[in-house]
Amino acid sequence: MSTVRVLVGTRKGAFILTSDGKRQDWKVDGPHFAGWEIYHMKGSPVDPDRIYASQTSGWFGQLLQCSTDGGKSWEQPGVKPEDATPTWPPAKSNRFLYDVSPETGKPLTTHQWYDGTQHPWEFKRVWHLEPSLTDAETVYAGVEDAALFRSTDGGKNWNELAGLRGHGTGPKWQPGAGGMCLHTIILDPADPNRIYIAISAAGAFRTDDGGATWKPINKGLVSNTIPNPTAEIGHCVHHVAMSPARPGVLFMQKHWDVMRSDDAGESWREVSGNLPTDFGFAIDVHAHEPETLYVVPITSDSLHFPPEGKLRVYRSKTGGHEWEPLTKGLPQQNCYVNVLRDAMAVDSLDECGVYFGTTGGQVYASADAGDNWKPIVHDLPGVLSVEVQTLA
Amino acid sequence: MSDALRSVRIILPYHLRNLAHVGAEVALPVAEPVTMRRVLDALEGAYPMLRGTIREYETGERRAFLRFFACEEDWSHEPVDAELPCAVKEGKEPLLVIGAIAGG
């Protein structure tokens, strides 16, 4: 029977939740890295027991952790003294150094600061880790201040794909309230050279040559919080989702507005439809029905909690526009949590499971595509990210 | 000046002990003159998982929310090549790596 493994990053550690394919009874394992912020964990599609984790702290900085046994044990890649050569001397697995070389870094050293002046790029943390679809040793990291890094040796060493920052609009990028983070990385299963990324508050970008060159893909986005609402860059994209079964069709939760692109981001159109509010962070797509998508509407950019204190997932089975609230098993009064951008995921069982975590420490699961929900856990630290692995 | 090795005691904050899989205190051989730079080099050499967590990779600067105390004095702002107090290099007193207090 299948096993489902839910990887939960929180403000104070990592938790691993496991269940069989019925997804009714759950084992909760953790906290791993107790006391540390775990921004994101994700397993390799090639080797699901290899899980990468971003461990970060305001005191001690950024660490990269890796498990090769499904999260039972962890280590920083390449730093064990007992490792034989060539892994000794130790790798710099937590070193994310921006490329400022004249050859590839251009060099690009500043972006726009809150006051409109230029500000140096300063590494703060890894927001998102995206393991390669084809090679367990290759993993991408989206970082704050916004940049994309890649490791091809299991996280031991990292190199920036500097063409993103250097493609031309970098000096105009500016941080949102949560910092200038590269939070979304989507690898196209049909085209190994195509990668989508998104940055708050710069927008979405795409490469078609494996990361060497990039272009903004924000046509059709309208943001009234920037001087030119239809500018090429400057949009606060909160998250982007794509069904692996239908590459090229993207769904976006922008600061305000739920958007859709049917041409790999070349153009976008709004599909917010009858949502009670189109502000939000999380968005995801059903594993088998590429026109079925999920969002969690949040009241506004000033009120980061659900409208009316009711926690409702909204589902569209028509690719947007028409939405239905999903409420069974979710609190419908006095609920004032948020659901962050990387805190929703789906499994790939025949009956698609949907999962999300809240800033209040609950992780909710639905084993029937959203019709019914129940909490797996109630009282974790605030949830930063949720990923799901469906294991044979 | 000499190349004599001193056994220097270092007390790490909770999270760094866990990272390094050590107890509250470690003792490491450090060549004289015993300076902050040499102690941290020895610490990171013995426990490479700590590299980057106490001082920045590129600049070698102390991370902002950490402090170094020795012999009831704050050594956080002293030059990294200044010789540490005799009591530290003689192993009578530890060097303390302290995380800045924060909470609410």
Describe this protein's structure:
The complex is a heterodimer of chains A (392) and B (104). Chain A is mainly β and 392 residues long. Chain A has one domain (3-391): 7 Propeller (Methylamine Dehydrogenase, Chain H), CATH 2.130.10.10. Helix content of chain A is 0%, strand content 38%. Chain A contains no helices and 29 strands. Chain A has strands at residues 3-10, 13-20, 27-32, 37-43, 51-57, 61-67, 110-112, 118-120, 125-131, 139-144, 147-151, 159-160, 181-187, 195-200, 203-207, 215-216, 237-242, 250-254, 258-261, 269-270, 280-285, 293-297, 313-316, 324-326, 344-346, 354-357, 363-366, 374-377, 383-391. A four-stranded antiparallel sheet of chain A has the order 3-2-1-29, with no helix packed on it. In chain A, strands 9-10-11-12 form a four-stranded antiparallel sheet, with no helix packed on it. A four-stranded antiparallel sheet of chain A has the order 13-14-15-16, with no helix packed on it. Chain A is globular, with a radius of gyration of 20 Å. The mean pLDDT of chain A is 95. In chain B, a hairpin with a 2-residue loop joins strand 3 and strand 4 (73-74). Chain B has one domain: Roll (Ubiquitin-like (UB roll)), CATH 3.10.20.30. In chain B, strands 2-1-5-3-4 form a five-stranded mixed sheet. The mean pLDDT of chain B is 92. Chain B is α+β, with helices and mostly antiparallel strands and 104 residues long. The longest helix of chain B has 11 residues, at 36-46. The chains are: A mainly beta (392), B alpha+beta (104). Chains A and B meet through strand 6 of A and helix 1 of B.
Structure summary:
Chain A contains no helices and 29 strands.
| Amount of beta strand of chain B | 25-35%
Helix content of chain A: under 10%
- Based on secondary structure, the structural category of chain A is mainly beta
Oligomer: heterodimer
Identify low-pLDDT runs of chain B. Answer: none
CATH-level-4 superfamily name of chain B: Beta-grasp domain
Number of strands of chain A: 29
**Widest sheet, order of strands of chain B:** 2-1-5-3-4
